[in-house]
Every structure is written in structure tokens, then in C-alpha cells.
Design goal:
The structure holds three protein chains of three kinds. By secondary structure, chain A is an alpha+beta fold. Chain A folds into two domains: 40 residues; 98 residues, Rieske [2Fe-2S] iron-sulphur domain (Rieske Iron-sulfur Protein), CATH 2.102.10.10. Helix content of chain A is 19%, strand content 34%. In chain A, strand 9 and strand 10 form a beta hairpin. Chain A starts with 11 loop residues before the first helix and ends with a strand. In chain B, helix 19 packs antiparallel against helix 20 and helix 20 packs antiparallel against helix 21. The chains are: A alpha+beta, B mainly alpha, C mainly alpha. The interface between A and C is medium-sized, with 17 and 20 residues.
């Protein structure tokens, strides 16, 4: 649509439009870049509060354990001598120390005050007043996945 | 003649009754024991023995119908033991109930004194009550963990009762200031030790010098194992130092401080050692590492807080900080090895975790910087666009005005 | 190019629309800055739709996952913090712009014939926008949102006869639960957007049809002097200015998001006692404070119900304003004074509420 007004040296108006267009491109890029990055999937495709990875299954040997993050808190995964996997919260219910698995006892043990839990999380000796929350555990393509009991 | 006999008997009863009453009224009698028969009968309604079908006559000799006589203090343990030391009998009422209480009691200081005829020491009824006896698992019972210190304290805090035996009256008050008392009474943690936990209940005796660490080891097993494997155990026995109590005290146990490690007067090591001893470098290492770890954790925590306040989440950093805290607890346990390597193995891990936490905090703060830089870049584009757009609008307005001016002129 | 244009012109009325827009002119006078208000509100709405759609990629509308999914967006998704903060800030700015638009139209009397339907659809849109705010606030499922929703959804229960049923309808049950969350989510992302799109299209169409209204004083002055009200073409002059405003708006929202990111607070704990200082978002504070001042019983009825009734009557009066205002000078002056009184009342109540609670962006 033709506008009245002085044309001036050829292209002054079109130069302004070009500059405007360039800045506009910059603004659109400044908007588009975060949006495109947002849409690309993050490293972890979903939050780790319902499901969490327990690491590689084949490297967790019988009668050993592993501590992994589950949401904001640690979880303990134990591979029993029989090969079965057990998973539960690793926060001791006494004074919140992180528990471990004792292969010699076949029980979960808290080093702080000698508390003990069985592999179902039940508190069986020492100060702990409550059991450890049990988690469901399964393997998928050599990856251990733990999830909260529904 | 018969009248005389009756009078004598009556007189004898009264004397015996008075004796019973008097012995029940000696200054050593526990406040729990009611004095009048009516009070006793009323209290007995809540008694576990009544629920079990026992009556007043089971424990008391009768004298003239209603008049019951309180047993002599020196006779009470054996009286209670008639049933409670009889496994055959007790299992009719509660198969889980132990029957070694009397056996333990006679080994205790209370029991040994009682056997000699001393009435100023505790007998069964002093702690368990006489007529309103509740089961030991009942939270209202005077021997339930939360009440034990108070029960023992009735005698053991009273200088009038303790001085005749050359014992201090301070332990219960001292215990009340301890972390164990706080855990038990404020947090309701019934696993926390009270008097009977360390001294024994029925077999109450202060532990021997060599066995203190075994007592503490019931819960603090790692520290005790390390201590016993270290050079200190034999050494402390030689110089008659009561193991754990030497540094941690026995009743007024407070949270140990990292600052206890060192050579100055206010440290625990410094009480015996100075820098000239062969193990001085261990003390220096331990203290140095603990200080370093504390500083690292504090710095990391502050960094993470700052990052969170700026709006970036630091879950990984929090996890690493948690790990660092766990290792710090571990390191403080390893102090009891009194050797450098076991300690530094742990303290190094703690420092690594603290470093990871700090790194995550720094990453988060870097993210804050990145966001602001991104905003700056976007702002440059926006500003440039706005300025150029403003120019274009101004030009447009001028162009609009000019033909109008041309029309008007 | 022209071949393409011709091909489209045969099939879609694009050229006719552009032709209409080319003839549209925007009056220029001392109050013309307020003409931007509607466009700014629309701009923020578009930002909401875009950022909302993006958030939908990662948000999960269940009590067990909502909070965590927002956390995930803030922490793990690249620029998730930005999209979420923009969505939250832009929501508040949109509501603010909507109120500016409402009051400027009220004071400038732009609702007069033949723009009554524009006004009425606008009032409904305001209600819908407030509905967006109320339903969206719950979606992160944090403590303050949960309790504020509980308080907010309890108010209709004071209505006689239907009150309880109304509350159950809002809450999806007797109490605020995961069911409420799902319900609010459905309303927020499907029902309200659906109704809004239709109403907005209607509203904007009417604005184009009738053009920009000139305030009575300006029109009178123009008549007296014989000079026509100066105006500028909508395309490109006014459009460029609109664009200027919108770019400024996006810059503002970006700066707010970078320097004052929207907090998430703690996850909703249904069994915890209500934290101190529960209050709704700022745009409901004036109503919240009014409810606090109303006595427990008024004329034998529950105080809350009477206040709700008053709000309802006020809303109805607002809706029917073009029909109530006789369009005489006196009538218009009354409307101005009433409008000013209402605005002052809302500001005063908001200030009182903020002073009582503490103020600041509420997580």
C-alpha cells in the first residue's frame, strides 16, 4: 500500500524496514530459541518421583547393595544371594541416617545406632521405631527401575 | 486367763501393726506406697495382680480381720519372688514374663545391702509400686522408660538419702541435661538410654571400668568396636580410666564437639596429651580434616541456599550434601579408631561429596547468570526493535503531517 | 505472488478483511492511550495460550504428580523455568490489563449504543478470565493454592438451598481433593478456552464492526468547534504502535521471569493444618477482604451469602450497564462517580488485605 511522503534517497525507507526486520528476527529468535529447546526432551524424560532408575542391573552382584536417589531422598536396592531384588527407602526411621545392607547378616543395618531392618523393611532390632517404606522394583533392558507402591 | 491371752494377742497385733506401719512410714518409704488400708484398696483396683485374680491376702498376713500388715522391707524381695521367681507359676499368667528378677536383684547393690538388713535401699515396691502395680510396658508405670529417671531419682537425687552411703545425688539431674534425656523425654524416643539401660534394672550396679564400653556398645557399636581395637583400650585399663566416660562423661552426656580434638586445655585430647607425643600428628590430622569438612559443608549449604533463593533447583546438590553429612557422621565415628588412615579414608569421601554439592550450587548460580545474560541478549534485540519501530512510527507520523501541511499552505 | 493472491482471493475473504482494516481509523485525543488496553489484554491472552500449550507437554494433572511435574518443569526441562514463570506473570498482567480495559471503557463510556453487546461480552470475558486465574492457581498443587481453593470454593456453600450442591459441583466432591484438581484442569485447558475463543472472536469482531468509540466530551468538543476528531489509520500506524506495546510487554514479562521467578512452595498436604496467611491471588483480595468485614449474620441471613449476593448484584449491574445508563450527561456522571467509588473500594480493600497478610508474590 503506497504511503504519501518523501521517498528520499532510494531505499531509505526500505533500509529502515530492513533494519526493523532484522531486529524483529532477533526478537523472534530470542522467543523461538527457548521454545524449541523447551520442546526437546530433557535428559531424564520424566520426573523421578514416581519412577527412578536404579542403575545397571548386571553390575549389581548378589548379596550387594546400591544407594540411588529417588525424588529428593535416597533409596537402597539390594540384590539378595538368591538373585532377587529388593528396594526400599534408605532413610533410617530413627534419626534419618542413610542405611546400608550387611551381606554377612542378610539384613539392612544402620551404622548410627545399630538399628536393623529385614529385607521387607520391617524394623527388627535397635532403636528404629518404624519400618522402611518398601518400593516396587523391576528390571527393564538391564536397567533397574524402582517405583513407589501404588 | 483367756482374757489375758486375748489382751496379749491384741497388744502383740497392735505392736506388729504399728511396727508394720512404722516401717512403712520410715523416711525411706517411697511416696507411691499408700498408707491407709482404704487408699491401698482403692489403688489395688488398677493393679495387674487384681486383674490376675490375686487378693490382699496373697501378699499380706492378716491380723484381726481387716487389719493388714505391710511386709518388712527386708522380706519384700523374697515375697515378690515367691511368684515372680517361679517359672512354673508365672507361665500360667504370662508365658513371656521373665523370672530372673530376684536372681538379678540379689547381685545388685540394692539387693546385697538388703540382704544385710539395710532398709534404706530400694526393694521391689519402691520402683514398681505396692498396690497400683502396672505392667512394665504400660506407659503410666513408674518403670516405663520415660519415668525411670524420675523413679530412681526419688532416692538418687536426694542428698539426705545418698550421703549416708557416700554417693552423689547428682546423676539423675546430670542425666536430665543429656542428649539421651532429650531424646527420651522431648522426642519420645524410647530407645534412648535411661538409668536402667546402663546400670541394669534389677541388677542395678554401676558398670566396671573395663565394661563401660561394652555397655555403650549396645547402641554405639561402631565407636565401641573401633575403641576396643585401638591402643586406647588397654591403655585406659592400665590407668583405670573408664573408657567412653573419660571423654563423654557418664550422665551429663552432651553432643560431642569437633573442637574436642586438639591440644589446648578445652579439648579432650589435651587433658592428657601435648604436641610432643608420637601420635600428635594424628590429632592434628583429625582436627584439621574435621574443621575442613565442616567448613566445606557449611559453604556448600550456603551456596545451595543462595541458588534456590535465586529460583534454580539444586536437587543433585542436596543429594550430595546429604551424602557429605552422612560421611561427616561417619568421620566422627572414625575418630574412635585413634589412627590417621581409617579416619582420612572417610573424611576424604566427605570432602568429595561436599565439593560435588558446592559444584552443583555453582552450576545453579551459573544458570542464574546464564538466565540474566540470556535476558540481556533478548533485551538488546527487543530494545533495538523498539527503537527502530519508534523511528518508523515517527517517520510515518511526519509523512502524514506533511501532505496535510501542504494542503493547508 | 499476485497469482497466489488471486488463487486465495477466490477462495477465502482475506482481501476483504484487509480492505476493511485499511479503512479503519483510530481517533486521537487526550484519552487515546487507553485504546491500547484491549489489545494488550489480548496479547497476554495469546501468550497464555502459547505458554499454556507448552506447559501441557510436561504437566500432569493428578494429585500424586502435579507438584512434581511442575518441579520437573522448573528444574529439568530446558527453559521450563522461563515458560512457567512467563505463564504465571502473564496471567497476572493479563488480569491487570483486563481491569484497566474495563475501567477505561467504563470511564470513557465506550459501552454506549451501539456497543452494548461488545460491553456485555466483555463483562463475561472478564468473568472467564478470573475463572482462568482461579482454576489455574490450583494446578501446581502447592500448600497455599490448596488452602486458598478450599476457602474460595467454600464461599458458594453459603447460598441457601443450592449452596452445598454448588460447592460439590465446584470441588468435584465434598472436599478439595485430586478430583478437584482434575476438574479444575479440565475447566482451565478445555472448557474456558473453548468458551473464551468463541466470545473473544465475537468481541473483537464487534470492535472491528463499530470502530473505536469516541468519549462524549471529545465528541462534544469536536461538534462545538466544527473540527473533526483527528484520527490515524489503523494499518499500519496504529498497528505498529500496538506492536510497540506488545514488544514492551514481552520484554517486561521476560525480565520479571528472570529476576522474580515464580515460586513453587511446598506440596499440598491435605492433613496439615492450614498455614497462616492463606489468601487468594491479588485480584480476588478485595472480595476476600470484604467477606472478612461482613458480619456473620446480616438480616437473618449468613453474612457470606449476603456479600456474595451483593457481588452478584454488582456483577449484574455491570453487565446491564449500557441498558441502565440513560446516556444523559447526568446519567453518565453518576456512572463515572460510581465507577470511581468501586475502583477506590477495590484498591482500598486490596491494600488492607495486603497489609494484614504481608504482601508480595504468594507461592
Amino acid at each position: 500500500m503506497p504511503l504519501p511522503g518523501p521517498e528520499g534517497p532510494v531505499g531509505r525507507r526500505s533500509f529502515l524496514n530492513w533494519v526493523l526486520g532484522t531486529w524483529a528476527g532477533g526478537v523472534l529468535a530470542a522467543i523461538g530459541f527457548p521454545v524449541i529447546r523447551y520442546l526437546t526432551p530433557p535428559d531424564v524424560p520424566e520426573s523421578t518421583t514416581r519412577f527412578a532408575s536404579g542403575g545397571q542391573a548386571s553390575t549389581l552382584l548378589p548379596n550387594t547393595f546400591r544407594i540411588v536417589p529417588f525424588g529428593a531422598n535416597p533409596a537402597i536396592i539390594v540384590r539378595q544371594a538368591s538373585g532377587d531384588l529388593k528396594a526400599m527407602s534408605a532413610t533410617c526411621t530413627h534419626l534419618s541416617c542413610t542405611v546400608q545392607y550387611r551381606g554377612d547378616l542378610g539384613q539392612i543395618w544402620c551404622a548410627c545406632h545399630n538399628g536393623r531392618y529385614d529385607l521387607n523393611g520391617r524394623n527388627i532390632a535397635g532403636p528404629p521405631p518404624r519400618p522402611l517404606e518398601s518400593y516396587d522394583v523391576s528390571t527393564r533392558n538391564d536397567e533397574i527401575v524402582i517405583s513407589r507402591r501404588a | 486367763m483367756r482374757r489375758a491371752l486375748w489382751c496379749t494377742a491384741a497388744w502383740a497385733c497392735v505392736v506388729v501393726a504399728r511396727l508394720g506401719v512404722v516401717s512403712a512410714q520410715t523416711p525411706m518409704a517411697p511416696p507411691l506406697a499408700p498408707v491407709s488400708a482404704d487408699q491401698a484398696r482403692a489403688a489395688f483396683q488398677n493393679d495387674v495382680h487384681k486383674a490376675a485374680g490375686l487378693t490382699c491376702a496373697t501378699c499380706h498376713d492378716t491380723a484381726h480381720g481387716d487389719q493388714y500388715v505391710a511386709p518388712a522391707r527386708t522380706a519384700i524381695p523374697k515375697l515378690c519372688g515367691t511368684c515372680h521367681a517361679n517359672a512354673e507359676y508365672i507361665k500360667k499368667f504370662n508365658p513371656q514374663l521373665r523370672v530372673d528378677q530376684l536372681a538379678r536383684y540379689v547381685t545388685s547393690t540394692h539387693g546385697k545391702q538388703n540382704a544385710k538388713g539395710e532398709t534404706r535401699v530400694a526393694v521391689c515396691s519402691d520402683c514398681h509400686g505396692a498396690h497400683g502395680i502396672l505392667g512394665v510396658k504400660d506407659p503410666r508405670a513408674p518403670v516405663y522408660p520415660t519415668h525411670v529417671a524420675e523413679t530412681c531419682g526419688r532416692c538418687h537425687s536426694d542428698p539426705a538419702r545418698m550421703t549416708p552411703f557416700n554417693k552423689p545425688a547428682t546423676p539423675p539431674a546430670e542425666w536430665a541435661t543429656s542428649v539421651h534425656a532429650k531424646a527420651l523425654l522431648e522426642r519420645g524416643d524410647v530407645s534412648a538410654p535411661t538409668c536402667s539401660t546402663c546400670h541394669g534394672g534389677h541388677g542395678a550396679t554401676p558398670p566396671d571400668v573395663e565394661s563401660v564400653s561394652l555397655v555403650c556398645a549396645q547402641c554405639h557399636i561402631r565407636e565401641a568396636d573401633l575403641f576396643r581395637a585401638s591402643s586406647k583400650k588397654a591403655l585406659f585399663e592400665t590407668i583405670s580410666q573408664p573408657e567412653c566416660v573419660t571423654c563423654h562423661s557418664n550422665h551429663a552426656i552432651q553432643h560431642p564437639q569437633d573442637a574436642w580434638v586438639g591440644f589446648t586445655d578445652d579439648t579432650k585430647c589435651g587433658k592428657c596429651h601435648d604436641e610432643s607425643i608420637p601420635g600428635a600428628d594424628v590429632i592434628k590430622t583429625v582436627r584439621g580434616d574435621l574443621d575442613q569438612l565442616n567448613a566445606a559443608i557449611t559453604t556448600a549449604a550456603a551456596r545451595l541456599d543462595r541458588a534456590e533463593e535465586a529460583g534454580v533447583s539444586v536437587d543433585d546438590g542436596r543429594a550430595a550434601l546429604r551424602e557429605a553429612n552422612d560421611q561427616r557422621i561417619n568421620a566422627r565415628v572414625m575418630v574412635h579408631a585413634f589412627a590417621a588412615k581409617p579416619f582420612t579414608d572417610v573424611s576424604t569421601k566427605g570432602l568429595q561429596s561436599a565439593k560435588l554439592a558446592l559444584a552443583d550450587g555453582d552450576r545453579a548460580l551459573g544458570e542464574v547468570r546464564y538466565r540474566r545474560e540470556g535476558l540481556a541478549v533478548a533485551s538488546v534485540f527487543i530494545f533495538g526493535f523498539l527503537v527502530t519501530l519508534g523511528i518508523k512510527i515517527r517517520r510515518l507520523d511526519q509523512a502524514r503531517r506533511e501532505p496535510q501541511k501542504a494542503k493547508e499552505s | 505472488m499476485s497469482a497466489l493472491r488471486d488463487w486465495i482471493a477466490e477462495r477465502a475473504p482475506i482481501a476483504e478483511i484487509v480492505e476493511e482494516l485499511e479503512h479503519k481509523r483510530v481517533p486521537q485525543h487526550r484519552h487515546d492511550v487507553f485504546y491500547y488496553a484491549g489489545g494488550v489484554t489480548l496479547f497476554f491472552f495469546v501468550v497464555q495460550v502459547v505458554t499454556g500449550a507448552l506447559l501441557l507437554m510436561y504437566y500432569r494433572p493428578s494429585a500424586g504428580e502435579a507438584y512434581e511435574s511442575v518441579q520437573f518443569i522448573m528444574a529439568r526441562v530446558p527453559f521450563g523455568w522461563l515458560i512457567r514463570s512467563i505463564h504465571a506473570w502473564s496471567a497476572n498482567l493479563m488480569i491487570g490489563a483486563a481491569f484497566v480495559h474495563l475501567f477505561s471503557v467504563l470511564f470513557l463510556k465506550s459501552y454506549r449504543r451501539p456497543r452494548e453487546l461488545t460491553w456485555m461480552s466483555g463483562v463475561i470475558l472478564l468473568g472467564l478470565v478470573l475463572g482462568f486465574g482461579f482454576t489455574g492457581y490450583l494446578l501446581p498443587w502447592n500448600q497455599l493454592a490448596f488452602f486458598a481453593t478450599r476457602v474460595g470454593t467454600a464461599i458458594p456453600s453459603s447460598t441457601p438451598v443450592i449452596g452445598h450442591g454448588l460447592m460439590r459441583l465446584l470441588r468435584g466432591g465434598n472436599d478439595v481433593t485430586g478430583g478437584t484438581l482434575t476438574r479444575f484442569f479440565g475447566v482451565h485447558v478445555a472448557i474456558l478456552p473453548g468458551i473464551c475463543t468463541f466470545l473473544l472472536a465475537f468481541h473483537v469482531l464487534l470492535v472491528q464492526r463499530h470502530g473505536m468509540s469516541v468519549p462524549p466530551a471529545v465528541a462534544a468538543a469536536s461538534k462545538a468547534s466544527g473540527r473533526p476528531v483527528p484520527s490515524m489509520p489503523f494499518l499500519p500506524d496504529y498497528m505498529l504502535r500496538d506492536l510497540f506495546g506488545w514488544t514492551l510487554a514481552i520484554g517486561l514479562v521476560a525480565a520479571l521471569s528472570a529476576f522474580l521467578p515464580w515460586e513453587l512452595g511446598k506440596k499440598a498436604d491435605l492433613f496439615a493444618p492450614a498455614p497462616a496467611g492463606i489468601r487468594p491471588e491479588w485480584y480476588f483480595l478485595w472480595a476476600f477482604q470484604t467477606l472478612k468485614f461482613v458480619p456473620a449474620r446480616v438480616l437473618g441471613l449468613e453474612g457470606e451469602f449476603v456479600a456474595s449476593l451483593a457481588f452478584g448484584l454488582g456483577g449484574a449491574a455491570l453487565f446491564f450497564l449500557p441498558l441502565i445508563d440513560r446516556n444523559t450527561e447526568t446519567s453518565r456522571r453518576i456512572v463515572t462517580w460510581l465507577g470511581a467509588a468501586a475502583l477506590l473500594y477495590m484498591i482500598a480493600m486490596t491494600a488492607l488485605a495486603l497489609r494484614a497478610g504481608g504482601g508480595g508474590p504468594v507461592p
